[in-house]
Amino acid sequence: MGSKYPPSMRRCLPLWTLMLEAALVVIFFFFTSYDTLSQDPPKQLMRTFRVFQDVTIVAALGFGFLNLSLRRYGWSSVAFNLFLLALGVQWAVLMDGFLDQHFQNKVVIKLSRIKLATMSAMSVLISVGAVLGKTNLLQLTLMALVEVTVFVTMMMIDRHYLNTHIHNAVLAGGVAVGTSCHLITSPWLAMVLGFMAGLISIGGALCLPGYFNQVLGTHDTCGVHYTFGLPGLLGGITYILLIIYEVNWTTKSISRIDIQLFFGAGTLSLAMASGLITGVLTGLILSLKIFKAPPAAKHFDDQAFWEFPHLATGF
Fold first, then answer.
1. Which of 49, 68, 144, 169 is 20 to 30 A from 306, alpha carbon to alpha carbon?
2. Is the pTM of this model over 0.85?
3. pLDDT averages per 10-residue partition of the chain, 315 residues
4. Among 138, 165, 175, which Cα is nearest to 19's?
5. How many C-beta neighbours within 10 Å does residue 304 have?
6. DSSP of 231-270, one letter per residue?
7. Distance between CA atoms of 106 and 82, rounded to whole angstroms?
8. Mutual orientation of helices 171-178 and 230-249 as an angle, nearest 10°?
9. Sign of the CA dihedral 248, 196, 263, 165?
10. Which DSSP helix (H) or strand (E) runs through 148?
């Protein structure tokens, strides 16, 4: 007995992804070039390479193999995450170059730009964890393109207009401390912040899944909301509170603190608003029948996307 899944899905998805990759190759051919004029000293280049290496390992090994615990969805979860990482980095490099104020006909590819592109792609891998198992590769690809575009745009706005600091952070404690780590002057502050992030993460794991599924009708496969979302919100609020804390314990002028506070609150509000609006719009688009999401009976099932002769009769 053959597989109970239609072969059209396994035939069409590779075709669409190959066409997308071919389009990216053409864009890179006409609009990109390597950085051949860089005068960066070897020590600075090695520092950048070490950071790039660490970020890539986190993205590829950490997020790529994070969901192997899904017993019947291990192949798809790993392959889709690695595919989205590669796609997200390529698209982020282009978006970062096109939106650069110094862009002139060609996007100059540098190691630092690829590092930032990898960090941008990591935002996609985090978000994918909420819908993994209930979406096909075409939906995830569209989700990646939209999210990377918005993420890079927000990063450019923050970098050029809001001046507030984007740091690499991983998991609950790291997410909470990532925004405000440059303002933390004592170990006890980091300990309290990490403790609060841990409580939020554990409490969210106990309470939020039932609330999301039963009340809101939403789903979160990998606990993205309580592992990244709420600790990230805690980090943004902590950043604002630490700026206020500096008023009484530093010699900085009140006007300077007011400006930092204004930009901190504005950045947090902008990030939340862009995330909510983009998430809702992307979700509505991905819900269209044209994308042929797997039906409920076939969620978290590798056989929808892979051929397993020894499992052809189902589980």
1. 144
2. no
3. 52 81 93 80 83 86 78 84 93 91 84 89 87 86 91 81 51 61 74 81 77 72 79 82 68 61 78 86 86 78 72 51
4. 138
5. 20
6. HHHHHHHHHHHHHHHHHHHS---HHHHHHHHHHHHHHHHH
7. 27
8. 40
9. positive
10. helix 137-157
Q: Report the b/e string of 78-94 with b at 16+ CB within 10 A.
A: bebbbbbbebbbbbbbb
Rounded-to-integer distance, Cα 264 and Cα 6, Å: 51
What tokens appear for 68 in the block?
A: 């192997």
CB 306, CB 294: distance < 8 Å: no
For residue 136 the two structure tokens come to 């096909």
For residue 34, CA distances in Å to 37, 106, 111, 112, 173 come to: 9, 9, 10, 12, 37
Asked whether the beta carbons of 68 and 77 are under 8 A apart, the reply is yes
Element holding 32 (H helix, E strand): strand 32-34
What is the token pair recorded at 138? 């075409």
Q: Round to whole Å and give the CA distance between 164 and 191.
A: 23
Residue 168 — left, alpha, or beta (φ > 0 → left; ψ -120 to 50 → alpha)?
Answer: beta
Are 143 and 70 a contacting pair, CB within 8 Å?
A: no
33 SS3 class? strand
DSSP 18: H
CA distances to 220, 224, 236, 241 from 229, rounded to whole Å, are: 12, 6, 11, 19
